[in-house]
Amino acid sequence: MSLSTHTPDPQLLRETFAHFPSGVAAMAAEVSGERHALVASSFTVGVSLEPPLVMFAVQKSSTTWPVLRQAGRIGVSILGEDQGALCRQLAGRDKSSRFQGIEAATMPSGAILLPAASLWFECSIYAEHEAGDHEAVFFEIHALQADKERNPLVFHGSRFRQLAA
Questions:
Q1: Maximum CA extent, the chain
Q2: Would you say 55 and 139 are in contact if contact means Cβ atoms under 8 Å apart?
Q3: Upstream peptide bond of 51 is cis (omega within 30 degrees of 0)
Q4: The CATH number of the domain covering residues in 21-156
Q5: Domains of the chain, residue spans
Q6: Disulfide engineering: 84 pairs with which of 5, 116, 145, 160, CB 3.0-4.6 Å?
Q7: DSSP assignment string, 38-60
């Protein structure tokens, strides 16, 4: 086998990263009476068991994260396999329509959890670290639930996919 490598320019990086499958997480909370959400495929579980930590990376250019990070608690919903349209809606540029028609559960803490997800976490920010053009955000988990009968939405090859046996 012959392996040739390339200098990692931004477009090649995007194309290469797209070959790594990932779940899709929606982070959401109510801040000052308004609902805010952002979607990330960079969400990672199993960062730490003690304390219980998960993490994701958010672009520094995000206009939603500076608002969402003000929440005391943030809901993380790992989207289910048939929630591609919901993902697109939550990631849309029109922030005022992100929650249109969605019956999300707002917890007493202000964390928002989305219906029909495969996993849910109620979290608070544990730490943030600069990571190039992103911020790495570590969340401490305070509550969780899993629907073991529901498969997650998978992002791979710049498309939404489903798990197959």
A1: 58
A2: yes
A3: yes
A4: 2.30.110.10
A5: 21-156
A6: 160
A7: EEES--EEEEETTTTEEEEEEET
Mean pLDDT (10-residue bins), the chain, 165 residues: 75 75 89 95 91 96 96 96 91 91 95 96 98 96 95 75 71
Q: What is the model's pTM?
A: 0.89
CA 70/CA 55 separation, integer angstroms: 17
How is residue 146 written in tokens?
Answer: 């899993």
Number of DSSP helices (H) and strands (E) in the chain, helices first: 3, 12
Structure tokens at 1: 């086998």
pLDDT reported for residue 155: 72
pLDDT of residue 69: 96
Smallest CA-to-CA distance from 36 within 82, 81, 73 is with: 73
Strand, coil or helix: what is 112? strand
